[in-house]
Amino acid sequence: AQKITQTQPGMFVQEKEAVTLDCTYDTSDPSYGLFWYKQPSSGEMIFLIYQGSYDQQNATEGRYSLNFQKARKSANLVISASQLGDSAMYFCAMREVVRTGANSKLTFGKGITLSVRP
Amino acid sequence: GAGVSQSPSNKVTEKGKDVELRCDPISGHTALYWYRQSLGQGLEFLIYFQGNSAPDKSGLPSDRFSAERTGGSVSTLTIQRTQQEDSAVYLCASSSASGANTGELFFGEGSRLTVL
Lengths: 118, 116
Fold this sequence. Notes:
heterodimer; A: mainly beta; 6-stranded mixed sheet; 4-stranded antiparallel sheet; globular; B: 6-stranded mixed sheet; 0% helix; 46% strand
C-alpha cells in the first residue's frame, strides 16, 4: 500500500488565486511528520513546510499553509496568492517513527505538477 | 560551499560499466539519504545513513547497488554493471538529527546518470 498518495492530475491556477494540492497518507504510527517540497524545472528540491502529527495548529509559512486533518489522514498544501514562480512539481512526504535525536527516511508521493497562468 | 554537493552532475556510461556517484553532505549533518528520480516521477528511496548506526538499505533495487559513507561524512553510491533502467537523477540529501523533529532534508542538485 502506498504510504503517500497524490492523485491529482496536473493542476492549473490563475495568478493571484489560491490553490490546494491534495495529499493523503497511511501510517499506523502515532508519531510522524509531514513535509511538502517544491521542485521547479531546474530540478532542485526546496523545502516548503512541515507538520508534526502532534501539532495542534496547522502549519503556515508565508503563502503556504498545510490543511492537516489527522482523522482523515490528509495533509493538503494551500498556496495563497499564486505567483508565476510557483509553477513546479510539488511533493508530499512523510517521516514515520520520529524519535528525539534521530531521523528516519522520508517517503515521497509521486508529486503534482502545478502550472500558474498569467 | 555550505550546501550538499554532488558529483558528477552528469554521467553518461555504457551498459555494463560501473559508476560511482559522490555526495558531500552539509557539515555536521549526521543523516544522509540517497534517492532516485526517473524522468517526471517521484523520489524513490534508496538508502539512508544515520550516524554510526547500520544503514537502512531497504530501498536498494538490486545487489548491483551499494553505498558507503566514510568517516560519517562523504558518501559514495556505486552501481555495478549498469543497465538502461538505471538511467535517472540520483539525489543526495542530508539532515541534522539534533533535537528537532522537523529534520528537513537539504538536497543536492543531483547526478544525472544516462546509461546507453
